[in-house]
UniProtKB/TrEMBL annotation:
Belongs to the FAD-dependent oxidoreductase family. This is NADH dehydrogenase, FAD-containing subunit. One of its GO terms (molecular function) is flavin adenine dinucleotide binding. The keyword Plastid does not apply. It comes from Ruegeria faecimaris. GO terms for cellular component: cytoplasm. Pfam families: Pyr_redox_2 (PF07992).
Amino acid sequence: MAKKKIVIIGGGYVGFEVARELDACADVTLIEQREAFVHPPAAIRALVEPALLDQIILPYDNLLQSGKVVRGRAVSVSETEVTLESGAVFPADYILIATGSSYAAPFKPSGDSIADFQQASKDVSAQLAKANSVVIVGAGAVGTELAGETASAHPGKSITLVSSDDTLFPKYPAKLGAQLKGKLERLGVTVILGQRAQDLRHLDRPYEGSVSLTDGRVIAADLVFPVVGSKPQSSLVQSLPGVSADALGRVKTDKWLRPSSYPNVFVGGDIADIGDGMTIVATARQNPWLIKTLKKVIEGAPVESQKPYAPWKKAPILVPLGPVIGSSWLFVTVGDWITRKIKGKDIFIPKYRKAFGISSSGK
């Protein structure tokens, strides 16, 4: 009996893992624009440890044993096939769209070229090493980790972290934000809360300049990092019939992560407005559900007979401030040792290298 054909669009944290786990039981085609996966959380540390850069760029060559990875850009999806910009057409019994999100350089590739991403990271790393003063605008996980990584690696630099919120990580218990603020300040970081930057020259890359705050202060800096959040790449799925999206562009779904009137098309990751944040932790909940559900559907079970997806009530979060210290919320607030053991020490690099079939020696 022929295996069911599954086409997965996007080789990020959702796409690569679902493709790998379904490889043995389905005819899997993974469509990805880039020749390699980039592990963004480690891209933060690579700015202060440039030798890490080669460790976090992971080619798709060894990901699948039976299925195939096709480099290309999907431009249309129907109930029965996916069409690429090249004109190639891939028939499908089931389709998963996981096209992810964009972010300011150099934390994610801004285009399809991995070489361009590498160069951008190297350029910013050199700028950061030379800068005496750094302003980071945005105090989510990326901004906070960047402040901590920079202060840990370059003690003595003037580092300012600016947040429009009155506390760090306001959606979490106050203890987490208070711990992180205190640790950043002990590292020498100036944390400014409750202020918006009014005149950012760029939103997609760092630059030299100044930042004006709503209270009238102007902070000059050798390097300004705009770290103001992800933008979902959802144009492909928004072209499907019956799709609706929020103001940010995340698409709404039914209980089984289906966004349109096509019953065999699913979405996951940053483009899905299903109650999860745009984080890797969200995919750690979505991926097992997608894998289990799609396996059952492949075997012939109706989608509606499967347990509906339930998002995190409050997702865990890990916030290292360099390789040694940090704080996290794992249903309770925890400190340096647990944050270091789980994430801070190696930023999950060995885990993802193993997932892509790449040894620690790079082979």
